[in-house]
Amino acid sequence: MSKHTFEEKLNIVSQVKNGRPILRISRECHIREGMILEWVRKYDRYGEQGLQKQPRINATPEVKEELVKLVIEKHISLPEVVLQYGVSTTALERWVKTVRLEGYPSLHLQKKRERSSKSMGRPKKREPETELEKLQAENARLRAENALLKKVKALVEEREARERMSGQKPSKN
Prior knowledge:
- The chain has about 170 residues and is mostly helical.
- Helices cover about 60% and strands about 0% of the residues.
- Helix 1 (about 5-15) packs across helix 3 (about 35-45) and helix 4 packs across helix 6 (about 90-100).
- The protein starts with 5 loop residues before the first helix and ends in a 7-residue tail after the last helix.
């Protein structure tokens, strides 16, 4: 998802080309300097087409490995690989870091993107089946209700105490 329109990018690149300091533009527009530099590089290499939204590449493990080898083994700079192959800077940085920590085979492991149902909030409610479960559920509900009422009472008393200290009459709410 592109946060900045083609027109915004072109305007910023033209300001840089006209001699305005990138740092000043960065601060005024609230855009990272690195992002502006990337836009200028793309403009220099591909013209206005370089500022258009590009289709995502299919990053197979083989593609990832090849791009990481360019950075690690052939010492081609990260921005150059990003510019040349149209891959995300963040993704390439993550792949390089993974290879440096775990080796090339780690790029070939398929990571599951599923979320376990256990980590997704409260479990679904189920109806109590036995009389004992019904009584335990009612007991838990009454305890929670009692605790809530105690907290509300404490807050009301605290507010009334503050109002007495400040010389105001307590409200009847």
